[in-house]
Amino acid sequence: MDERNYERFVVDKDIECYVGERRYNVILYDLSSGGCMIEAPQAPLTDGVVIHLRMNKFIETSGQVVWLAAGNAGVRFGELLHEAAVRHLGFTPSDLPFDEMTPTDRFGRRLPALPRH
């Protein structure tokens, strides 16, 4: 049973990770107020190391690596991220089946169907 203390959001965003003074580009995949999962195959992460994450120009936090698996790491934040920041960075997948989703442009206008050849 998965017992998590905070609501988690799917993210999939390139962010900066600092291990000591060195900066690495990592991918943020999973985010909650209490922690996250990152993909960081190039960063020299070890269990228990404290890292600093810059998620965008306004949201930064530090945390401790609590697990490692195949280039991924789980990070527990030293201080909780505000729920508004987590919701801003994350997204909630649609409940609609994929076949029912209508593609739209960045203004929300429905895109025309592609011609069949």
TrEMBL record:
It comes from the Bacteria. Residues 3-88 form the PilZ domain. This is PilZ domain-containing protein. The lineage of its organism: Bacteria, Pseudomonadati, Pseudomonadota, Alphaproteobacteria, Sphingomonadales.
